[in-house]
Write a structure and sequence with these properties.
Length: about 190
């Protein structure tokens, strides 16, 4: 009788643990849900909303190869793919977009860097000069693809590939360096440092 009770207890314990074990195994082998950049699955590091005068302008997400809570570490991982994804929450004119990008560049680039990256900055800003502005729901992705450089897409359409690793990481500072809105960095990195 004692051995039957032990066997019953053991089977009951296994039955109770089975869903937890199955869930753990499923989470371990499930493919990541983030985008693929440079043949690597990325994970969402963080997201934030850019707002102006109480109006949401865009949602921004940062995808990286592994979650990192240190902006300098993210900026220093130049050999790993990354993605900044921007989803517009309202229509934005080319002038508004260019002005905001320029303000952010002024906050994050020294005069020497602006001169050094003048061609790349012109190409980057030129990606959004479509004559129509940017509309609510537009998705902009700015990828770092190691050995290729920065790949800029608008609603999935490849706009430009700007070579070099340094320029991407300089542009990434627009969101995780000294952004126009502190909560952007806090949301993307998880710290205010």
């Amino acid at each position: 009788m004692k051995s039957a009770l032990k066997l019953f207890s053991f089977i009951f314990l296994l039955a109770c643990l089975q869903p937890a074990i199955a869930q753990e195994v499923a989470e371990t082998i499930a493919p990541p849900g983030g985008p693929v950049v440079g043949h690597r699955h990325l994970v969402l590091n963080g997201e934030a909303i850019r707002s102006v005068w109480g109006f949401d302008v865009y949602k921004v997400r940062l995808y990286v190869h592994e979650i990192m809570r240190d902006a300098e570490k993210i900026l220093g991982s130049t050999k790993e793919p990354k993605r900044i994804e921007i989803v517009l929450q309202r229509d934005v004119s080319e002038e508004q977009f260019s002005s905001t990008v320029q303000q952010n560049i002024d906050n994050n680039f020294s005069d020497e860097e602006k001169a050094h990256y003048a061609g790349e900055l012109k190409s980057f800003i030129g990606c959004f000069d479509n004559g129509n502005g940017l509309h609510e729901g537009t998705v902009i992705t700015i990828d770092h693809v190691p050995s290729e450089g920065m790949v800029v897409r608008l609603d999935g359409k490849n706009l430009d590939t700007i070579p070099g690793e340094d320029f991407y990481h300089a542009v990434l500072r627009l969101w995780i360096g000294k952004p126009l809105q502190k909560s952007i960095k806090e949301g993307l990195v998880g710290t205010a440092d």
